[in-house]
Amino acid sequence: MKTFQTLFLVVLIIPFAEIYLLLQVGGIIGAFPTILLVVFTAVLGAWLLRQQGFATFQRFQESLAQGEIPAYEMVEGPIILVGGALLLTPGFITDIIGFACLIPQLRRKIAQYVIEHYLVQAGAHFQQAKAAENNVLEGEFSKEE
Q1: Which one in 48, 74, 102, 128 has a CA-CA gap of 20 to 30 Å to 94?
Q2: Residue 30: helix, strand or coil by DSSP?
Q3: Cβ–Cβ < 8 Å for 77, 58
């Protein structure tokens, strides 16, 4: 299945699953505690987003100061933003995914996967294209009559 189709299905299915889960939890613990739980996870998510964002930015600056390429930090930044956005979205499924994005050990594993499977492959394609450019023969052409 193509990436766009998969993303479309996820965007279509997640809200229904969230509503179903919210109704089930609300039926078990009540409506008001469910609302408080959703608000609590949003507040906790905003606090974690701020804390983890600053920590990652500090590591980013330290890497640059040492003359290193901050590859993990550059990938972790968007993961933190996605995690924060998911935590601010009401629902328990998005909260679980959002918390996973904000836990440093899990975020590091996600970043490592992204770097190895997407960025390294993109770099290999770039090197192949660069090598193809280097296979050009230089010369001059003149037409004699």
Answers
A1: 74
A2: coil
A3: no
Cβ pair 36, 22 in contact under 8 A: no
CA-to-CA distance for 42 and 59, rounded, in angstroms? 25
Q: Is 39 exposed, middle or buried (0-12, 13-18, 19+ CB in 10 A)?
A: exposed
- In this predicted model, what pLDDT tens digit does every residue of 43-77 receive, in sequence order? 998 898 899 999 999 999 999 999 888 888 889 99
Classify residue 17 by its DSSP letter: H
**Is 94 in contact with 18 (CB distance < 8 Å)?**
yes
> Cα dihedral sign for 78, 79, 80, 83?
positive
